Amino acid sequence: MQYELRTQVIEPRRKTFTNLTERYGDRPATRYEEGSVDVQATANFHYRPLWDPTHEIYDPEYSALRLTDPYSFVDPRQFYYAPYVTSRAHLHEAFASTLAYLENRDLVERLPQGWKDLVAQAVIPLRHYESGGQLIGAYGCRFGYGTTITQCLSYASFDRVGNAQLLSRLGISLDGGSDGILVSAKQAWMADADLQPLRKYVELLLVESDWAAQHVGLDLADQLIYGLLYTHLDETALLGGAGAYSLVAQHLSGWFTDNRRWVDALYAAWGRDPEHGAANKAELSALVARLLPGALEGALGVARIADRCLDAGAVAFVETRARALAAAFAPEES
Amino acid sequence: MAAPRKLSMKQRYAALTRDLDWDLSYVDEDTAYPYTSFEGIKIHDWSKWEDPFRLTIDAYMKYQAEKDKRLYAVLDSFAQGQGHLQLTDPSYLNAMKLFLQGVTPLEYQAHRNFAYLARFLNGPGPRFAALCQSQDELRHAQTEIHTLSNYNKYYQGFHSWNHQHDRVWYLSVPKSYFDDAVTAGPFEFLIAIGFSFEYLLTNLLFVPFMSGASFNGDLPTMTFGFSAQSDESRHMTLGLEAIKFMLEQDPDNVPIVQAWIDKWFWRGYRLLALVSQMLDYMLPRKVMSWKEAFELYFEEQMLGGLFPDLAYYGITPPRHVEHAIAEKEVLSHQVYWTLYQFSFAAGFTTTVPSEDAQKWLAEQYPQTFEKLYKPLWDKASAVVDNGGRYFYQGLPQLCQVCQVPMLFTEPGDPTTICQRHTEFEGERYDFCSDGCQWIFEREPEKYVQAWLPVHQIYQGNCGGPTVPDVLAWYKLQPGDNGEIAGNVEQTAWEAWHATSSAEEQAPAPVAGN
């Protein structure tokens, strides 16, 4: 038997806000759609920025990559604030239990020396790389056009602080609760010859004026670095008795996979745009041709450290991955 | 070798946040942070910024996820149980329509511009604080949309909030206010929004809406208000830290900051004109009068509490504050009387205040209501009794700065409209007050750019030459605007309640198996 609860039935006057029924027809909208689509102002701005009178407050011309309708891009994860923070609360909780597990069993301490060196010399310094990613996301959040895009960039920026804090916690743990490794990792970030190409690459990205160039440039470096440290080396770790490394790496590779979903969807939206698609593809090819060499040089530095610590085929992996990226973004034959 | 010393909580926090930053060496600092010098603010040591709160990302995510889980549970159950039927009266929702059309887009703008600060302030401490606030402001924009989304399904006036914010005449008041702030430099924005909006005036802006909700059966908005409170207290401490940091860094900063306080107090105060009428006229069940709110939240707490503290730095109460104090007796009445006459072109409805409401207004405003404003309502009532409704024919002149119609009166003379004007590059510009004129004259190049709705209508940029053209361009639907009495919302409300009381009298259905 079922309960027969009587409730007052009132026919709603409308299913959602007008902008959404105009776009999607007369159907109920999701909370993602209501909180994201058409939220940014697009018209009748009152003043121009004192610090940039050549642009409107929100202006598609802040980037060479354009969408005819900015909302032709939607986040495949459907992240508005609430599901975003819920998802990241789980990520950080899971990482904390991994770290507690490793600490309780002294597993970080028992990592083979080569892996300890890898973590201290190549992985922990990248908390500063993440911190650079924080600034790139914040820049995109301000200057991107359309809430569905800027919202992703905003969360990505916050994620970078989160990732930097995961790496920092690992560093503190590896040093028995102190910051010795963080301090030496920062010195390495500032001075180690193998890390300078990456630091230089990030610093130069920060002063690119086009937010999309910054974003694409970061993604190129991410694809090489995350691919190396958290996928390629993860497999090596499992074969080489460094299970603890794999337990940590899963959280970062999991984040990277999640982040890729919207990054790839944005590439796709740029490419299929009815008006700007061809120009976007050409612009992306040119951007990748210009930025990939720097990203590759940066990632190769990290790979050289990895190979010194482990001889894990890191340099070869990065080179292969970079060739694949170059091919994926190569100009289309006309 | 000695065992490594474990980090203290404070050191650990620094290691997880500002220590992530590094000194750039492949690009110079001025190229990477190009916007922190043109305003004249001198910062000698960014590390002196005291983090106003210490939250690591894991803690932030955990708290916020828990808060949102509770909030959305309330929204869902309210929607499922037709909670909107428990409102005091559907006309209460006029306050919430104004909120969604006028305030929610500002939260969103704050989200975007705190991201600008999160990129361009030179110090990692304030950058991270700004990034957190950017996230919070997005939360507020979205939770407000979701909170009010259920009302949109049954009531008018909510359906095109974002479209209207960029177009409708009275919404250019909040829009131009925030556009002004985000087009300023990063330090002015910190004073405009971080300090003036989030600290100085926040209790006059948010508390009236949230208290109004709780007095009028709007459980979702009240829950939203409570849920936003812990975020807001972080924003308030950020605003206070920002002003102290600037004042402590260099004595040359003091006069610059003072001028910004002067400007943004008046700018914000004029925006609050909309809140004053909401408190005194829109709420069916009153919370407190505008005058009382202004005395408590501004005169007592800010002039009496905050400014004596800021005097230590050489900061004085804002310029023109005496005009705001003098205006507290007349402000809300003048504004609502204007909205009453122009609500045919608004996304909310108005009516002659009921007898009880007028009695309450007379008690709250013994000096002014019966003498100056009751006669106006008597006249309006007489028109209604004869089967009419008084709407103003024509378009109002707007103040070039605050964009409120020129409805305010001379300080100390509530029967003479205050009009000021300034010539700039051969053109005449009009202002509602000394405050707005002073703001214009500091930065005329900025304010001549204003997108003034009335000018735009006359120039043919708003859908066409007739009133119906403009209203269609606003996407107003029948029942969104005009008079409350006889409105589709009122008739629907009465029908819903007639049904529910009929059901209550019928034998209750047996629930269960």
What does this structure look like?
The complex is a heterodimer of chains A (334) and B (513). With 334 residues, chain A is mostly helical. Chain A has 12 helices and no strands. Chain A has helices at 18-24, 31-36, 81-104, 113-123, 126-143, 147-174, 180-191, 196-206, 211-239, 243-272, 277-310, 314-328. In chain A, helix 8 runs antiparallel to helix 11 (277-310), helix 9 (211-239) packs antiparallel against helix 10 and helix 9 runs antiparallel to helix 12 (314-328). The longest helix of chain A has 34 residues, at 277-310. Chain B has a single domain (35-490), classed as Ribonucleotide Reductase, subunit A (Orthogonal Bundle). Chain B is 60% helix and 4% strand. Chain B has helices spanning 9-16, 29-32, 57-80, 93-102, 104-120, 124-154, 161-165, 172-182, 186-200, 202-215, 219-249, 253-271, 273-282, 290-310, 321-327, 331-342, 355-364, 369-385, 434-442, 444-447, 453-458, 467-473, 488-505, and strands spanning 349-350, 409-410, 413-417, 420-424, 427-431, 482-483. The model of chain B is unreliable at 505-513 (pLDDT under 50). Chains A and B meet through helix 2, helix 3, helix 5, helix 6 and helix 7 of A and helix 1, helix 3, helix 5, helix 6 and helix 7 of B.
